[in-house]
Amino acid sequence: MAKSQATKIVSKKHLARLERERRQTLAITITAVALIAIVAGLVVYGILSQTVLLARQPIVKLGDQVVTTREFQLRARIRRQQLINQYFQYYQLAQMFGIDPNTDPNIGQQLANFTNELDSPATLGQNVIDEITANMLVRKYAADNGIIITPEDVDKAIRDAFGYYPDGTPTPTLTPTEVVYPTLNPTQLALVPPTATPTIFLSPTLEPTFTPTLIPTIDPSVTPSPTDTPLPTDTPTVVPTETLVPTATLVPTITLTPTITPTATPYTLEGFQTKYNEIFVNYQKLGMTDADFRRIFFEDKLYRDAVYKAVTADVPHVSEQVWARHILVADEATANTVRALILAGGDFNALAAEYSLDPGSKDSGGDLGWFARGAMIPEFEDAAFALPVGGVSDPVQTTYGWHLIQALGHENRPLSETEYQSALEQAFQEWLATYKAEATDLTVYPYWLARVPTDPTIEGVYSEQQTQQAETQAALPIDTPIP
User: Which of 35-49, 173-187, 227-241 is least confident?
Assistant: First the structure.
């Protein structure tokens, strides 16, 4: 007969110990789970803070406009890519002409400029910050003044940039502007003989006569070979030949310029889209979206052009200018001696030829022609503009030496196209600087410097190009010799 098992008696003390152990185990489990959750949360937060959250942090704010870290880094990478492209273009240009880019000072200096900016996050980043700030200020002005760029405007700008004109190639129109320069007054004629007038003037004695001459009309659609003789059409064209009295005859050169009329473009929609995608794919590697592409390369420019036109609308086509001549000497004593000779009736042209150290003007009587403010160094410019016509300055010291300046004329003169464009750009930059100084709600966060990307690199782009070339060569069919 088996022994009966002894009944295990559980006391209250034993139950209390079991309950205590259960609670301790539960607390340890909860603590472990909490620690794991905290660590996992920190890891996830760290990843998010370096990706999503960091990318959304602002770099520049202006009113309700915000440029995030993502856009700042994208624009910085675009600038790096552009600098690298320019580097390769200069390098290849040097090789094309047989120039060693490492020893040629001009090419070498350009290459050094590119690499210096690429190697300096502070310089490159500041250039990007300046560009971003200018774009934001332009958009603020546009919003405040009712200037709106629509998606349709951006679409058209993209089509134009890629040469796709679905409605036909536009006809360029040229509006010539007649520039009229006043003739010399008696005071100026007394100061400067006719041979010393600026080259911009025509001789007042030139009186051309016109003799009709028959010149055959050439069909612009026919391209003659070196031995072909163009045949005249049935209807001759009368072209005047300018003849100078008494014997010289000037025959103007005929330049055939066919009229450009809108025609259906041979560039198809499919071709345009293919080319667009080829360009866009290159920028996708930098993290650019289609919206980025449209905004950065086209919308920004459209806004800038519209605001540029608005803020420079009042820039005049003329500027205050002075016509002056000078004599440059090495010291003040010589300057005083020459000035005394001029005031005593000495010939300025002869004195300039004898004393002036300026090789560019001494043989032309020291004549500097007409110039506007900003063309000369301040000391020289201030003295020239302050002089009356015919007045001779006291010796003026500059970094070049000592000058004696005589004013020959003061006028508001028409600007050349190049001068006018420079005046427009100067006016726009001055407006931009003033507008920026007045923008009290503009904030640039200083941590941008730590977020300047260092890619792409010259080495990386070169390696990628070599790989692409190798793949292209490998894909070409191999010619099999015919037996």
Answer: 227-241
Residues in contact with 95: Cβ distance below 8 Å, sequence separation at least 6, in sequence order: 101
Predicted pLDDT of residue 319: 93
Task: Mark whether 102 and 86 lie in a shared domain.
Answer: yes
pLDDT of residue 51: 61
CA dist 406 and 383 (Å) reads 9
**pLDDT, tens only, 422-444:** 999 999 999 999 999 999 999 99
Same domain assignment for residues 212 and 275: no
Residue 423 located in a structural domain: yes
21 and 159 co-located in one domain:
no
Total Cβ atoms within 10 A of residue 78: 19
Asked if 355 and 402 sit in the same domain, the reply is: yes
Question: Residue 406 falls within a domain, yes or no?
Answer: yes
Let me know if residue 2 belongs to a domain: no
Please tell me whether residues 385 and 428 are part of one structural domain. no
Indicate if 221 and 94 belong to the same structural domain.
no
CA–CA dist 66, 63 (Å, integer)? 8
DSSP string, 193-253: -GGGS-TTSPPTT---EEEEEEEPPP-TT----TT--PPP-SS-EEEEEEE-SSS-EE-PP
Q: Are residues 99 and 211 in the same domain?
A: no
Cβ 171 vs Cβ 258: under 8 Å: no
Q: Is 3 in a helix, a strand, or coil?
A: coil
pLDDT of residue 173: 62
Residue 203: pLDDT band (50, 70, 90) is very low
Per-residue pLDDT tens for 111-158? 999 999 999 999 999 999 999 999 999 999 999 999 999 999 999 999
Mean pLDDT over 81-110 rounds to 91
In a domain, 481, yes or no: no
Q: Please give the helix or strand (H or E) that residue 368 lies within, else none.
A: strand 367-372
Domains of the chain: total: 4
Q: Which domain holds residue 22?
A: 14-41
Whether 101 shows a pLDDT value over 60: the answer reads yes
Rounded distance between C-alpha atoms, residue 429 and residue 356, angstroms = 38
Main-chain phi, psi angles of 324, to 5 degrees:
-140, 160
Hunting for tokens 């070339």 — which residue is that?
469
Measured between alpha carbons, how far is 220 from 232 in angstroms, rounded to an integer?
12
pLDDT of residue 213: 39
All residues at 6 or more sequence positions from 365 whose CB lies less than 8 Å from its CB, including other chains: 192, 196, 325, 348, 349, 352, 353
Residue type, 158: I
Mark whether 112 and 197 lie in a shared domain. no
Percent of the chain at pLDDT > 70 equals 76
